[in-house]
Design a protein that fits this description.
Largest sheet: 10 strands, mixed
Shape: elongated
């Protein structure tokens, strides 16, 4: 068969299941002899027919159709007439061609319609310490810094452990900053053994070592604390003009814009929350909402508010605008809050899920169609 023979018509008839025996024989013989560029052009021509489709899912469906029809014809039962023709041209060569088609098709599809990327459940953070700066997401496991009485080690799970080894008072009191970008999260074990997990778009400021009568850190954004018990040295979290004082406990604190103030939720133990409006002591499964001239306590399911530490979004009667702000931060995209309907949402979503899947689930739950357009979550008409 001459390679300059027109092939798109043969291929189109094949996909439409309108080929006769002679046309099938001609097409499969071509498959066995064509080079990669010819096959790529043939696949590309078929995909381009759907280039104007309203949704890229239609192009993906087209690719699946091409693949399924090839597989159906090439791996037909032995008693079928076509199997003799295939064996005559070489089953191994045809099977290899199938793999080429699948690979090329996927490459072209992904090139024409790149998936919405996100960095989820990724241990990504920047650490400022001892006058230095380190990007922790790319650091190797083991000791990554040891000098001036400071030892910083990275564990296999991606978290870091901070230790002060015979550091002098000046070094011990020096403040360090751990900062996560949108789409990242990070866990750190402080010098006293307390564990802090920092959510996306957040910041933790802490001393190299805790000396003196208290252990004090500063937080912006959201963090979950598992504080090591030390009755003689209370742990204090300073956040947005307020302070949380604990001896040993687990709690979540959030000061994101959508929180409209500070939100502290107690999982176990007890905490004392204080600001200019007053002071309250929380019990497990209680939450304080603090803002200007406001200090409200309510009973909640604390597990709902630290679900993010388990790799989940758990929204229980949460305003859609708040949900979208959290998703936008995690997936590092934008959202037009002004266009969102006034609704509350009940939904549980994995933080490892692709953003398209998440928006599809939210669309089903709300009855509104949400999509990602130019890195922005939009409400479709």
């Amino acid at each position: 068969m001459e390679k300059n023979t027109s092939k798109p018509e043969l291929f189109e008839q094949f996909l439409a299941e309108k080929s006769n025996a002679a046309e099938l024989n001609q097409l499969f013989d071509y498959f066995g002899h064509a080079d990669q560029q010819e096959l790529e052009d043939l696949i590309g021509t078929e995909l381009e027919k759907d280039a104007g489709a309203a949704h890229v899912n239609e192009q993906e469906h087209r690719l699946e159709t091409i693949h399924s029809k090839l597989a159906k014809q090439l791996f037909i039962k032995p008693e079928g007439k076509l199997i003799k023709m295939i064996r005559s041209t070489g089953i191994i060569k045809i099977a290899a061609t199938i793999l080429v088609f699948v690979s090329i098709g996927l490459i072209i599809y992904k090139f024409l319609n790149p998936p919405h990327q996100f960095v989820s459940s990724s241990a990504i953070a920047t650490l400022h310490f001892d006058g230095k700066k380190a990007t922790l997401g790319i650091a190797k496991n083991g000791v990554i810094y040891q000098q001036h009485g400071i030892q910083i080690s990275k564990k296999a799970d991606g978290s870091i452990v901070y230790m002060a080894l015979n550091a002098d008072s000046a070094t011990a009191s020096r403040l360090n900053t751990l900062e996560t970008p949108n789409g990242g999260a990070y866990k750190i074990t402080l010098g006293d053994g307390s564990i802090v997990m920092l959510n996306a778009g957040s910041k933790l400021i802490f001393p190299t070592d805790f000396r003196g009568s208290e252990r004090k850190v500063f937080v912006q954004g959201e963090a979950f604390f598992n504080v090591a018990k030390n009755p003689n040295k209370p742990f204090i979290v300073a956040v947005g003009g307020s302070e949380i004082k604990v001896l040993g406990t687990q709690f979540n604190v959030s000061s994101y814009p959508e929180t409209e103030g500070i939100e502290a939720t107690l999982l176990e133990g007890s905490i004392q929350f204080s600001n200019s409006s007053g002071q309250v002591i929380l019990k497990p499964n209680q939450q304080v909402l603090a803002g200007y001239s406001r200090l409200d306590v309510r009973n909640v399911s604390a597990e709902d508010f630290n679900a993010w530490t388990r790799g989940e979004f758990l929204f229980n009667d949460v305003p859609l605008a708040v949900v979208m702000q959290k998703l936008a931060r995690w997936y590092n995209v934008e959202v037009d809050l002004a266009t969102l309907p006034t609704k509350n949402l009940y939904i549980k979503i994995s933080r490892k899920a692709d953003i398209d899947e998440v928006l599809e689930n939210i669309s089903k739950a709300t009855g509104n169609k949400f999509d990602l357009n130019a890195n922005k979550i939009v409400l479709e008409e």
